[in-house]
Amino acid sequence: MNLDAFPTATFAGGCFWCLEADLLHLPGVLSATSGYTGGAVANPAYDEVCGGATGHYEAVQARFDPELVDYAALVRWFLRRIDPTNADGQFCDHGPQYRPAIFFHDAEQERQARAALAELEASGVLARPLAVALLPAAPFYAAEGYHQGYSAKNPRRYQLYRAGCGRDATLARLWGPEAANPLFGYVPRLRQGAPGEGELKRLLSPLAYRVTREEGTERAFDNAYWDEHRPGLYVDPVSGAPLFASIHKFDSGTGWPSFTRPLAPGNVVTRTDRKLLVPRTEVLAWHSGNHLGHVFEDGPREAGGLRYCMNSAALRFIPQEELERAGYGRYAGLFRGESSGV
Predict the structure, then answer these.
(1) How confident is the prediction for the chain on average, in pLDDT?
(2) Which of 50, 92, 165, 309 is catalytic?
(3) CATH architecture of residue range(s) 197-335
(4) Catalytic residue selected from 15, 18, 50, 165
(5) Is 165 a catalytic site residue?
(6) pLDDT, tens only, 33-78
(7) Spelled out in words, what is the top-level CATH class assigned to the domain 8-180?
(8) Which of 12, 89, 147, 149 could join 101 in a cystine, given CB atoms 3.0 to 4.6 angstroms apart?
(9) Could you tell me the residue ranges of all domains in the chain?
(10) Is 192 helix (H, G, I), strand (E, B) or coil?
(11) Catalytic site residue 15?
(12) What does 79-134 look like in DSSP terms, one character per residue?
């Protein structure tokens, strides 16, 4: 997925499995890559970094949509997902590779990060002084493939490690019980919430209102996008937040538009739907709360095995050639080389 048009944020906060997983909860974060940075050794291996002699930090590099969340908000959130007073490591992990740091990519990021650190220090919330390094971004080396998306690929081992390391217990001690929410401290640019009923009925067709606000389902093979093959973006018709992209769309044979993943994982949320005899996993838009559809575990195995089965009426499709005019030109790079045939 080509995300070169989007700004980068790079943070070191202990084990990169945990920081990567936490970042992907955030609406507006498009990707998170675990890796190594800050040292002198090119293309280091995990064992080398763990040895502590490379100078590298375990870090995570994120790409984000600045229309949905700004860099300063990411920094403030990050400082509340670590122990910013521990200079020796994080949680149960100790050593130079686990030190906390913010790597800035330009002068404006440096200014915003410095301001956030000063603001936290002046607040007096923490009993000890801050120990987070503020460093210029250095070459970033993606970690080995088995580290990427570790929390999703190995959920049981990940949860055992996270609990055993005391990460969440430490966060609760530092910041209070609210820290159990991975969005604690997160302030998006595009805020959460839907307009009043009158405005919703003005924005949405009767069918779209029934689907999104009353959890309805449109008919299979009789909806706008089940056989839409053009490159483009699928957005929330209420908030405008990007939800899915044609690069992740596939023909599931079900008669509804189906995707292997959301464009930005945090832009959607899930909950258990018990309206039928068999529980299902409902998918909603984080920003508006709109019902979108359901996700099932029968998608293409090579793409993660998930099928996001969406209602066309819950989406607005913006073809590639209209992205700039519609205010989504920053996403055009996603579709370079994708066929525009029908």
Answers:
(1) 96
(2) 309
(3) Beta Complex (2.170)
(4) 15
(5) no
(6) 999 999 999 999 999 999 999 999 999 999 999 999 999 999 999 9
(7) alpha beta
(8) 12
(9) 8-180, 197-335
(10) coil
(11) yes
(12) HTSS-TT-SSEETTEESGGG--EEEESSHHHHHHHHHHHHHHHHHT-SSS----EE
